[in-house]
């Protein structure tokens, strides 16, 4: 009788340990799933922004000291340029993706040549190049 109780207790202990291990594994998998979903969302935003920037670089632009924007509503793309000085122009572009609250905006330096965008070599920017916040706000 005592042997049966000890065996039953040992089986229950193994069962409890198995449940604890599976619970910890489930928590890790939930966290990994969240990280993968976040990364997929970022990659979709980045692809939309790159597409918007490529589209914007093919458009005809005029030089102006205020933001000029052009939209491609079917794709949700938005490209804007601002002439800074000495024919230096900055382009900001983003694309809308489903379920996104704030779009990822890509910035790039360039120039205008007969209303055509020419990107500056190594002109990619990680953030808005202006120190004044109001100059970084794009028109809606």
From TrEMBL:
Keywords: Membrane, Transmembrane, Transmembrane helix. InterPro entries: DUF2509. The chain crosses the membrane at residues 6-25. Pfam families: DUF2509. It comes from the Bacteria. This is DUF2509 family protein. It comes from Buttiauxella izardii.
């Amino acid at each position: 009788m005592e042997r049966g109780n000890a065996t039953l207790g040992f089986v229950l202990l193994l069962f409890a340990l198995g449940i604890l291990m599976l619970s910890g594994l489930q928590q890790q998998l939930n966290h990994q799933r969240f990280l993968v979903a976040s990364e997929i969302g970022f990659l979709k935003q980045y692809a939309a922004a790159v597409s918007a920037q490529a589209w914007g670089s093919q458009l005809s632009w005029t030089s102006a000291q205020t933001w000029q924007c052009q939209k491609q509503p079917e794709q949700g793309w938005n490209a804007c340029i601002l002439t800074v000085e000495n024919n230096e122009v900055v382009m900001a572009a983003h694309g809308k993706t489903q379920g996104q609250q704030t779009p990822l905006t890509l910035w790039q330096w360039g120039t205008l040549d007969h209303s055509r965008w020419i990107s500056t070599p190594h002109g990619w920017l990680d953030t808005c190049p202006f120190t004044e916040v109001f100059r970084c706000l794009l028109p809606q």
